[in-house]
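Annex B, item 7. Sequence and structure tokens for protein A, then protein B.
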Amino acid sequence: ALWWLAAFLFRFVREYDGETAGGANALREAWQSLKLLRDDVPFRHFVITRSLLLCSALSAPFFVVLAQRAAPSSRMLGAFLFRFVREYEGETAGGGNALREAWQSLQLLRHDAPFRQFVITRSLLLCSALSAPFFVVLAQRSAPGGRMLGAFLLASSLASSLSAAVWGWMADVSSRNVMIRGSGLAAIVCIGMGVGGYYLAGSAALIWCIPVAYLVLSVAHAGIRIGRKTYLVDMAGGTKRTDYVAVSNTVIGVLLLVTGGVSALASLLSVEAVLILLGLLGAAGTLSALRLKDA
């Protein structure tokens, strides 16, 4: 059914004309390209080496034991042949000490107020990503046996396929508003399921509310992702955008470890309490996104 739905939706995808300049006979162009193997010695050596290295990948699905014995020897042979591959000098302009450059990039959080506000907002919006596993735990506790797995897969697929175009169109208008709406929606769902888990524990209504709530959460998460990516692209350009992405991803990676650990410890007490806590984080993220300026 999903394949039929995807085929139907693809009818509305707008196609753009590809690059056709310099077109020629495909077989003739392919034959001329293959002559590189005859005329370019370093490239021919590289292709031979790469072909030999395929053995470990090709043999694994069929002869696991044989692959384990053959892979080390093939890799040693590949390493020996790579000694004869000619390397060309890469781009090194502007290079510097990696730790010093990373530390200087982190100073953006102190000196760049709009970027600092964006990182704070993005950190609070982690609620949509962190809460998804607890929906699954709540479903397993309410309906053991894995009966809800199909419903969760269907909800995730529908959320990604149906909401992406809508969120993308809204992000073109205002990526800030997309983050506000996505985080607000995620906060409502998390708090609602946390409270519902307390008062409707074991009921049939809760069992069927969980997949629906997970669908809404997935839609909200898709909006948050599209909104914050679009906002970051609009906020900076060139090398500054690269620094923004690197710093924000580093901070988010550290916070994921911290908040993931805290959530895991809190889940030992109550899954519902974790969902309410993450919902409150999402609400704080909504308030923080309201302080952002339209990029």
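Protein B:
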Amino acid sequence: IRRSFHSYGNHRPMSNQATSGAATAASGVTGGAGARFLLAASRGTANFVLGLMILAVLWGIGGYMIASNPKTANFAGFGLLPTLQAFPNLWDMGKLQNATYASGYRLGSGMLMAVLIGVPLGIVMGRVQWFRKLSNSPFQLLRMISPLSWMPIAVLVFSSWDGSIVFLVAFASVWPVMYQTAAGLSKVDPAWFKVARNLGATPLQMLTQIILPAISFDIFTGIRLALGVAWVVLVPAELLGVTSGLGYAIKDARETLAYDNLTAMVLTIGIIGYVLDTICAMLIKKFSWHRGDM
């Protein structure tokens, strides 16, 4: 102990030059990281704006060609400018809000059911080998059936169209969530569970402290894939029988020959889908162990 204190006393304090040099180096590293972050953000924004500009130019050219041709002039509402001009009218009439709310409710309910069913089943498939082997054939058979083909049966089983559509969305979305969860759990090191059992962890603690943190990246990846499938199913399902939602709004605009409203609703579907996908990508990046591009 005395030697320790003696050697400690022999250490000279760091000089002011060394201190200032270390501070300068640290600030240089921090500044370099900040500059790289700003550069990456500016590039991402530039790519985003440039991509939308290219799409808008192509859409504008196509709309001009449709409007300038006498044979297709009746479909000029599909152009970019008529579509953008339709948004204020749809908003003032409340059609845009009502359709978005109705579709959002069905999408959210179906996705919630898919997550509540798919994540537990995926965990069981990833942990229990005999269940994974036994369920593989029936699950693969059901997964290959088009969700819309269940519509006649869903209408008979459920008392409302909303219930039928929610069932179709959930049925279509549960498979990506379930299989992605199982795949993520299969990559977890088995030694983690052995150590947890040796330390006396309960099954609930293993679930909350090991399994869910380890596979959260895979769960959000499955949800992101399921969202794309859910959108594909939701809009065609709303074309059948219901009187609300984005799919019904598209159908109503087609029957009334309001092509500008039709393309405005289609664009709304794309914007909502893009926002939801971006949120999922941010969650995936947050919980990812590999900091790469999504």
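Comment on protein B: Residues 1-15, 22-26 have pLDDT under 50 and may be disordered.
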